[in-house]
Structures are given as structure tokens and as C-alpha cells.
């Protein structure tokens, strides 16, 4: 049944213009209009057919009645072509009134067996027009005028006699009544189906409203929980870092004493404590930084920096860890990489996270930190890559690679440790610096993480290049001056009174 109604709805909807189909209320009324005009004439034509067989002398009046009823099939096509729904409704009602009163005039007048069809006029009209008071007034006025004209003609002129016997008239009345009942029943069924669909839709809307309300409540709860978490992290940052720094500091002092005393067993245990403290402090810092970024409280302080020394400094911090893993750490910066204007500390932290990740997943291999500059019309772009020859990452893991607490794979997570906070933090820091991180990897061949960011955030191309050239010149002059000072220190260290001369020269260098 539902499939049949769905098929009928698809057929009917073909006649609906887009402007009517877009309005749910008008679409419902237009569907009733189309149902009555597509299927109504099939039932209605049973009346002129009965006239033809029961009348002793069928005349042109029966042909006109059949033509007027068949004319209802034209209306759906006119509606599709013009979209004039209200006008077609008025014309359709006029056509229906004409058909009924025409048959009544020629066959029995007020005693005509087709007179019950007049009851369908207001019923169908209200199906078509809905709650519009203006259209209701037009339809009722139309019906009243037509009835007045019919009554006047019936009183002033003598309608021709059809010559039907009493038995034929009774049979015609039975056919007319059954046809009218079927017509009204058909429309009532379609109307009931429309109401049922509307009730079902309202039920779904209420369910959606309940779901939306629950989602809003869940969102508010999540916001409150996030605010509470951020507040907790902010308050706990000092309490977490202070004892960890104490553990690291005291373990370092005890480790130095153990080394001096050549107590290898104690030194080995203290070294593990020291490394675990550093690892825990790193995790705490990452969690706190992630919380700051998520809360929108991480500030950016941009400054000019020469890329080549910046990379050397970032790599220097991780050379010891690379040597412990028997890795070779290389730095390759193109000659024209130049100057970058960004938050140097956060860029260093981002590079450090990538280096730490590479060292963690590479054993007895090579890690390369490289930088290049690309000239673009909208401004230069700096690309900093960290390439390793480690285990590699499967391509299906790329999407979740930068998610918090998602490791590159179960094996690497178990073997090398880590909660993958570093990669998540590095991408968020990179976004904060108006850049992004991409990854290329193949299992067994290693991985390459590339940071891409503007060389000068917030500056135009011309301004960017000019400022970079000025800063590069200033940095080059500073480096030359530093080399001169180092040469002076070296010369002073070889002559008499070298120690006092070194001190004075160092003071001069600091003042310079």
C-alpha cells in the first residue's frame, strides 16, 4: 500500500511546478487538486455513459457533459506549464458546477439523479484552497451565482424532456450516487493519507527537537567540562612543574656525585630517574600547551630569525639523543633560505617535536633536518622538513596521525613508547603560526614530515622581501662582528697575561 501511494505521489509530483513543490502547505493542496483531476474523470464519466445507455434518444447534451468532465484532464498539464494554481482552482470549480447543473437542467431539474454531486463542490473546493479566507469567499460566491443562474433559467424556460422511464431514472440515480460516493471516498482516502503523513512528520519533528535539545544540553555540559579542565590545568601547571624540576635537579646533582665516586650502579639508576623526569616534564609541558591552544590562550610573539642558525640550534638540542640511538643527525639548509618572521620559540618547539618523533622511531639510521625557500606572488614560503630512515608509517594511519593519544601503530607504540602528543601539538603550533604540516611515508623506507609556513606572517610580498633583505644584512654584519671578536679572543689567549686579557676581552665582547 505504501509503495502504491509512493508511486502515485511521484506521478502527481511530476505536474508540480518548482515554486509550488517548494512550499509544503501549497504542495499538499496541489496534490489533492491533481488527484481529483487525474482520477476523478474516470469515475465522473460513468454518469454520461449511463445517460447514453438509459436515455431513449441520446442527444448533444450528453456529449457536452462528457466533454466537460473529460476537460478536467487538461488542468494538470496547464498547472505544470503555468503554475497559476489559484486561477486554475477557480476555473476547475466553475467547470464542476457547470457539469453538475448542466446534467440537472436537461434531466429532471431539482429532481435530477445527478443533483447529489453538488455536495462535492464545497468539499473539493476546500480541499484545494486550504485556509485562505479570500479564496473561500470567491468559491462560495461563485457557487451562489451559478445556482442563482440555474434557478432563473429553470423557472423561466422549459427544459427539454429526456423521455426516460421511471425505472431508467432510478437506475441513473443509483449510478450517479455510487459514482459520487466513490469520488468522495477516493478524495477522503487521499486526504486521510496526507493527514497521516503530516502527523508522522510532526512526530519526527518533535523527536528532532528533543534530540536537538539534548545535543544543546550536551554541548553546554561539554563547554563547562572544558572550562573546568582548562581551569584545573592552569592551576596545576605550577604544582606539576615545580616538583618535577626538583626531581630533575636533585637527580642530576646525585648523578654527578655518583660519577665522581665511580659508582656505576647508582649512576645507572640515577640516570634512569633523570631521564624519566625529563620525559615526564616533557609530557606535562605538552599537555599544558595543548590545553592553552584549545582554550585560545596561547599567544604568538613574532620576530626575525635567520633560518640556517635556527635549524642548527634546534638540531643541537637533539644530537645527544640521536647519538644514543646510533643515528646520524644532519642539517641541510639551502643557501638562499634567508630570514623568517615568526614566533621562533614555537617554531623551535615544533621542529623539536618532529626531531624527537624521528629519533624515537629510527635506530642506526639517518635523520635529516632541511629547509628551503619558495618564491610566490603572495609571499615567500619556508619549508622545513624532518626526514628519517626509520620504520615508516602505513598510509591508512595518516588521517589519525596528528590526533591526540593516537600512535603510529600498535607495534611502534609498544616498542618506542609515547602518547603521540608531540605530533598533535606540533600541528596545532604550526596552525598557530599560519602554517601546516604534511607527511610522506612508506613502511620500511622511513618518513618525512614537512612544515610549510609564510616567511613573513601578516606582511605583503614586497614588504616581506624588503624586510627580509634588511634583516639578513643586519644578521650577516652581526655574525662578522662575532667572528672578529672570537679572533681577538684567540690572539689574546696566546700572549702573556692571556687570562686577564681574556677576561677584559670577554667583557668587551659582552658590551659590544
Description:
The protein is of the alpha+beta class. It folds into 4 domains: 2-215, no CATH class; 236-294; 299-459, 2-Layer Sandwich (Heat Shock Protein 90), CATH 3.30.565.10; 473-512, no CATH class. 68% of the residues lie in helices and 9% in strands. It has helices at 2-13, 18-21, 24-44, 46-54, 60-70, 74-82, 85-106, 120-129, 133-156, 166-260, 264-295, 307-316, 319-324, 344-360, 410-416, 421-432, 461-494, 498-511; strands at 303-306, 328-333, 339-342, 366-374, 381-388, 436-442, 446-454. The strands form 2 sheets. It has a 5-stranded mixed sheet with strand order 2-4-5-7-6. β4 (366-374) and β5 form a beta hairpin. α7 packs antiparallel against α8 (120-129), α11 packs across α16 (421-432) and α12 (307-316) packs across α14. The longest helix has 95 residues, at 166-260. Mean pLDDT is 79; it is low at 407-417, 459-465 and 492-512.
Order of helices and strands: HHHHHHHHHHHEHHEEHEEHHEEHH
Gyration radius from CA atoms, angstroms: 45 Å
Portion in helices: 55-70%
If strands are numbered along the chain, what order do they take across the biggest sheet? 2-4-5-7-6
Low-confidence stretches: 407-417, 459-465, 492-512
What is the overall pLDDT average? 79
Structural class comes to alpha+beta
Count of alpha/pi helices: 18
Q: What portion of residues belong to β-strands? A: 5-15%
Main sheet: strands, sense, barrel:
5 strands, mixed
Number of strands: 7
First and last CA, distance:
94 Å
Number of structurally distinct domains: 4
Global outline = rod-shaped
